[in-house]
């Protein structure tokens, strides 16, 4: 019995979903035929130079609006100019419209960085450039070691920071020495 | 739950600061968020990683220490057990249930009795001795096995690059 009562809402839901799916399917070709296709097809035909041309004449106009009007008249700068001069308001572009960007290389460039993000080196990462080239702190062993754990939160934070920096700078100094030793040792 | 996790992390932070293990510096990026740490690990001596300092980020789950943190290197690390995006793949970072290959012993895996310090020490020894059975970076693993010279050259190159030389 319980199964029966459960089934009725299920059937109703099924019918509603089916109806929506059919409606969506039927309305799709009409939409797809006009808007996105038109935008996609038209966009490559106009060049950023054409948009610049119009934008220079009418700096008050939005570049996207200009691009949209150009893409609709096939990149005819004269026609767009005429339209603006005659006082007609240019149509607002649809949200899906992508005007060509002045830098044609943009898509290619945005595609490459995620593949291999260049990791900043430690000196850049921890802002140590200013501390390079200085000799090591005079006899670091003899200095009273900064207390590793402090009751003060800010002091703790700066101690940790200091330990990080020292670790990196020490490694860098050591590596530099090694390089120098290798360079001077090589000819011998 | 969250507060017991922060308390435990704070305790570990205190321990690591008062008595830091050789070649390791670790602590929260800021104490406002105890669940994100940054660690520096020194490359073990006698390995191509020698002389390097490797920063890594540790992200702790809200139910730490029941679940392990995730660890990710912030510089290029060419190593069989480090994914190309820097994520570290070793048994101590895996909870006991999560072992589809059954090659790891339960004792090596994460449990609440492990700690940040143990993770970092394990990662340090992982740098010295890659685990060839579960490569995270297949190319690095193959190179490590077949062309050790080339592998070491890349590692040394990365070390120098990371020190800005």
Automatic annotation (TrEMBL), chain A:
Per the record, where are the segments of Basic and acidic residues compositional bias? 142-182
Q: Which domain of life is it from?
A: Eukaryota
Per its UniProt record, what Gene3D superfamilies does this chain match? Answer: DNA helicase RuvA subunit, C-terminal domain
**Membrane topology recorded in Swiss-Prot or TrEMBL:** Single-pass membrane protein
CDD domains under this entry?
Answer: CUE_Cue1p_like (cd14424)
Where it mainly occurs, coarsely classed, is membrane
Single GO MF descriptor:
ubiquitin binding
- Where would you find the membrane-spanning parts of this chain? 6-26
Indicate what this protein is called per its UniProt record: Coupling of ubiquitin conjugation to ER degradation protein 1
Q: Where is the CUE domain?
A: 46-89
Q: Where is this region: Disordered?
A: 92-188
Please tell me the species this chain comes from.
Lentithecium fluviatile CBS 122367
Q: Which InterPro entries match?
A: CUE (IPR003892), UBA-like_sf (IPR009060)
Automatic annotation (TrEMBL), chain B:
Region annotation (Disordered) ranges: 1-27
Q: Which reaction does it catalyse?
A: S-ubiquitinyl-[E1 ubiquitin-activating enzyme]-L-cysteine + [E2 ubiquitin-conjugating enzyme]-L-cysteine = [E1 ubiquitin-activating enzyme]-L-cysteine + S-ubiquitinyl-[E2 ubiquitin-conjugating enzyme]-L-cysteine
Q: Origin, by domain of life? A: Eukaryota
The UniProt entry's sequence similarity note says: Belongs to the ubiquitin-conjugating enzyme family.
Q: Which keywords does this chain's UniProt record carry?
A: ATP-binding, Nucleotide-binding, Thioester bond, Transferase, Ubl conjugation pathway
Provide one Gene Ontology biological process annotation.
ERAD pathway
What is the main EC category here?
Answer: transferase
Query: Recorded E.C. number(s)?
Result: 2.3.2.23
Task: Tell me the active site.
Answer: 89
SMART domains assigned to the protein according to its UniProt record, in alphabetical order: UBCc
Boundaries of every UBC core domain copy: 4-164
PROSITE patterns xrefs: UBC_1 (PS00183), UBC_2 (PS50127)
Q: Name one GO molecular function term.
A: ubiquitin conjugating enzyme activity
Task: Write the protein's name.
Answer: Ubiquitin-conjugating enzyme E2 2
């Amino acid at each position: 019995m319980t199964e029966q009562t459960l089934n009725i809402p299920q059937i109703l839901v099924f019918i509603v979903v089916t109806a929506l799916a059919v409606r969506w399917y039927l309305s799709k070709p009409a939409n797809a035929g006009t808007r996105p296709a038109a935008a996609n097809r038209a966009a490559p035909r106009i060049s950023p130079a054409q948009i610049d041309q119009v934008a220079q004449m009418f700096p008050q106009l939005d570049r996207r609006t200009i691009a949209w009007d150009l893409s609709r008249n096939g990149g005819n700068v004269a026609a767009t100019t005429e339209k603006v001069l005659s006082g007609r308001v240019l149509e607002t572009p649809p949200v899906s419209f992508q005007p060509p960007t002045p830098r044609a290389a943009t898509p290619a460039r945005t595609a490459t960085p995620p593949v291999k993000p260049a990791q900043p080196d430690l000196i850049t990462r921890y802002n140590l450039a200013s501390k390079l080239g200085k000799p090591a702190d005079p006899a670091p062993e003899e200095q009273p070691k900064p207390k590793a754990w402090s009751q003060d939160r800010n002091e703790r934070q700066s101690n940790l920071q200091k330990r990080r920096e020292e670790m990196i700078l020490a490694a860098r100094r050591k590596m530099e020495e090694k390089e120098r030793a290798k360079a001077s040792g090589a000819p011998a | 739950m969250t507060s017991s996790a922060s308390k435990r992390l704070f305790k570990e932070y205190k321990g690591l600061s008062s008595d830091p293990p050789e070649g390791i510096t670790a602590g929260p990026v800021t104490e406002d968020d105890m669940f994100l740490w940054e660690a520096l690990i020194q490359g073990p001596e006698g390995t191509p990683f020698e002389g390097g300092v490797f920063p890594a980020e540790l992200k702790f789950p809200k139910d730490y220490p029941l679940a392990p943190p995730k660890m990710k290197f912030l510089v290029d690390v060419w190593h069989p057990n480090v994914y190309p995006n820097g994520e570290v793949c070793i048994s101590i970072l895996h909870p006991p249930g999560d072992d589809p290959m059954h090659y790891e012993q339960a004792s090596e895996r994460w449990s609440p009795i492990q700690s940040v310090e143990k993770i970092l020490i394990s990662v340090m020894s992982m740098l010295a001795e890659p685990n060839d059975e579960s490569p995270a970076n297949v190319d690095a693993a193959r190179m490590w096995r077949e062309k050790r010279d080339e592998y070491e050259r890349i590692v040394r190159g990365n070390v120098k690059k990371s020190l800005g030389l």
